[in-house]
TrEMBL record:
The lineage of its organism: Bacteria, Bacillati, Bacillota, Bacilli, Lactobacillales. Belongs to the TRAFAC class YlqF/YawG GTPase family. MTG1 subfamily. CDD domains: YlqF (cd01856). One of its GO terms (biological process) is translation. NCBIfam families: GTPase_YlqF. This is Ribosome biogenesis GTPase A. It comes from Weissella oryzae (strain DSM 25784 / JCM 18191 / LMG 30913 / SG25). Required for a late step of 50S ribosomal subunit assembly. Has GTPase activity. GO terms for molecular function: GTP binding; GTPase activity. PANTHER family: MITOCHONDRIAL RIBOSOME-ASSOCIATED GTPASE 1. GTP binds at N132, V133, G134, K135, S136, T137, G176. The keyword Transmembrane helix does not apply. InterPro entries: G_CP_dom (IPR030378), GTP-bd (IPR006073), GTP-bd_ortho_bundle_sf (IPR023179), GTP-bd_ribosome_bgen (IPR019991), GTPase_MTG1 (IPR016478), P-loop_NTPase (IPR027417).
Length: 291
């Protein structure tokens, strides 16, 4: 883990600085989090950078997450005063869902503008989130044609590029890449499970063992079925022994690394079913509890 801790801070500082600079050009920030790891995929310093800037929390990849847990998380964030949508960003209703939610967040401000005679003002937004959370996918689904806005407007003069959507949003075309924080080693494991960080950064065997500990408690049958293990496999084996057993079942003899790699691919592609490895009560040490 030490390697990761040394590697990220410079990137994170730069990303947050860029975010601060761009914030003044937008009305709202779309903060993306991965529904499978809603805490580990958030950046704890974002709260401070955003201050009072309106925000919409978008939980992505709900098709890969446990639906019951997604509901719990949505409530949890809403109870903190955040506006939240949870979706598979690739769905065809994404533009309508996101635009409606953004309009709701900004309803008062837009009503005040309309009173002053400003009609149909586009909502300007910045998409932010950690790598792999779905930023580009969201942008691509919101913007049906690639139309860059030009002209003498704030942002444009600074050579920022904006993308217009048919639903009257204007999106900064470069998403803000945030970096997670790794003080809690579970954060690293969870990010690795979902593929948010490079595989070279964490020992895959360790990630798979953390993952098996989760499946032992919450979805034991998914592993039994996928790797054709005997029904009593969990009861008679430790997590390490189970990894060895799966390695043999996969026909990889004693090549545990290869088995770990295969298991992670299965997990990330949803072959082990939907999963959400974090719950609010886990207190994964990275997000400020207050908004
Ligand atoms: N199943 C599923 N996959 C998604 C969803 N959103 C994005 N993806 C996939 O997740 C992967 C990463 O998505 P990107 O849009 O490239 O993520 P990004 O945040 O732009 O990533 P970086 O460029 O690394 O910062 C891609 O394979 C997407 O197809 C979703 O809601 N559900």
């Amino acid at each position: 883990m030490a390697q990761i801790i040394q590697w990220f801070p410079g990137h994170m500082a730069k990303a947050l600085r860029l975010m601060r600079e761009n914030l003044k050009y937008v009305d709202i920030v779309f903060e993306l989090v991965d529904a499978r790891i809603p805490l580990s995929s958030r950046n704890p310093e974002l709260d401070e950078v955003l201050g009072q800037k309106p925000r919409l929390l978008i939980m992505t990849k709900t098709d890969l997450a446990d639906p019951e847990r997604t509901k719990i998380w949505k409530n949890y964030f809403e109870n903190q005063g955040l506006a939240v949508v949870a979706l598979d960003t690739r769905g065809h209703k994404t533009p309508q869902i996101i635009t409606k939610a953004a309009r709701t967040v900004l309803a008062d401000k837009w009503a005040a503008l309309e009173e002053k005679g400003v009609k149909d003002k586009p909502i300007r937004a910045l998409v932010a989130g950690i790598p792999n959370v779905g930023k580009s996918t969201l942008l691509n689904h919101l913007v049906t044609k690639n139309v860059a806005i030009t002209g003498d407007r704030p942002g444009v003069t600074k050579k920022l590029q904006w993308l217009k959507t048919p639903t009257n949003l204007e999106l900064l075309d470069t998403p803000g890449v945030l970096w997670p924080k790794f003080e809690d080693q579970r954060v690293g494991f969870h990010l690795a499970m979902t593929g948010a960080i490079k595989d070279q950064l964490i020992n895959q065997d360790d990630v798979v063992l953390a993952m098996l500990a989760y499946f032992r408690e919450y979805a034991p049958n998914a592993i039994i079925e996928r790797y054709h293990l005997p029904a009593e496999a969990w009861a008679t084996n430790t997590d390490v022994e189970l990894l060895l057993l799966i390695t043999q079942k996969l026909g990889f003899k004693d090549d545990y690394d290869r088995a770990a790699e295969r298991i992670l691919i299965d997990l990330r592609r949803g072959k082990l079913g939907p999963y959400t490895v974090e719950m609010p009560a886990d207190n994964i040490g990275m997000v400020n509890d207050a908004k």
